[in-house]
Amino acid sequence: MTQPEVNNKPTTIVAFDSSYVLVAIFKSISEAATLTNTVRQSLIKAAYGDIISVNKRYWRAIPPDFQIEPDDVGKLTLFEFDAAVGEDRKIYSTRKMLKNSVMLESEYIALQAAQGR
């Protein structure tokens, strides 16, 4: 009988709300799944970019060389985070989070700049 595999290095995962602000830091994907009542595999896909969002949240895995602090909750934006880790993923506009309108973050930032925001 084989022993179950133990994950000695759980992946820290963060959640951003539909207005692109950090709302939670979880010590592992399993913890996030349990506390948010979400399917673990869906969180994995969202954290690594296979899907855009899960449960009206954007999910990101924290790279080992990236430092995130509890003080960042409510302050750090999805754009700042993705720029710091070198990501440019698809996102929904805030109003269309529940619809299928998708754009790259860089396109959204350019659109906001063009609109003077």
Which stretches are low in confidence, meaning pLDDT under 50 for 5 or more residues running? none
**What is the CA–CA distance across the termini?**
60 Å
Q: How many runs of DSSP E, i.e. beta strands?
A: 5
Radius of gyration: 15 Å
The best one-word shape is: globular
Binned, the helix content reads 25-40%
- What is the subunit organization of this protein? single chain
The overall pLDDT average reads 84
Please list the strands of the largest sheet in the order they lie side by side: 2-1-3
- Main sheet characteristics: 3 strands, antiparallel
Along the chain, the helix and strand elements come as EEHHEHEEH
Range of strand content:
15-25%
**SS class:** alpha+beta
List keywords for this structure.
alpha+beta; single chain; 117 residues; 4 helices
Describe this structure in words.
- By secondary structure, the chain is α+β, with helices and mostly antiparallel strands.
- The protein contains four helices and five strands, in the order ββααβαββα.
- The chain has helices at about 30-35, 40-45, 80-85, 105-115, and strands spanning about 15, 20-25, 60, 90, 100-105.
- It has a three-stranded antiparallel β-sheet with strand order 2-1-3. It has a two-stranded antiparallel ribbon with strand order 4-5.
- The mean pLDDT is about 85.
